[in-house]
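Why show two proteins at once? Because comparison is the fastest way to build intuition. When a single record is shown, students tend to memorize it. When two are placed side by side, the eye starts asking what differs. So, the first record is below.
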Amino acid sequence: MGPLRREVDVLLVEDDAVTAEMYAAQLRAAGWVVGVAEDGLKALGAARRKRPRLILLDVQLAHLDGLTVLEHLLRQLIASEPAVIMLSNSDSPEVVERALMGGARDLLRKSNTTPSQLVAKVAEVLGRDELSRSLTTAIE
């Protein structure tokens, strides 16, 4: 069996439909294939099936909160672990610490993040990962 194929570049996990559509539309306009999950359980299933390069993960979700989803992602066997950026309206130092210590690349406050700023952050993270992969391949 050959390598698993990615179905999406970015998995957006957001329970608010308006926010999800706003961010997803901007990400698609920037050229990425975007999948959307509206709760924590669906996020875990979508991460396994769709194999995203990056997950934008809301902290407050139904069924499983985003921090718990992050913990599960790190424990599960996902062949190429995606980068994770947490999204939240909380500025609680505990939430920020748990997210970053749990493996998230960053935590963005939704109320302070425009769709274009989100696209720029996604480009930064995916570009950095692509460069890292290229350098690793060149060294090997």
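Second record. Ask yourself what differs from the first in the token line.
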Amino acid sequence: MRTTSRPSYEILNGGQWAAAEATLTRVRAFTLLLALCALFVTGCGGGSDEDAAAPVPTTTETTTPESAARPKAPPIVGTTLDGEEVSLAELRGRQVFVNVWSSW
């Protein structure tokens, strides 16, 4: 009766269990070493807080150029979500934000 913990396929592969086990141990050790190196490299990439980018100053002021300096918008006509047609010409003189987007 066999009492070893080796798998039953040892007989099928010519009894080379020791070589396969040594190779598996080397692969596991290399994988562990590679993972530790990756953790070390990612953890050591930082610097001091002085090296960090300065925060972008925020402001609530808006600047609008004089109306004579702004080019006129081209004639744009679109449909609202309610199905009504709207054109930029109807909104002349008011500040308008046009959000142009697409769905792929």
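One difference worth noting in the second protein: The beta strands are 77-79, 85-87.
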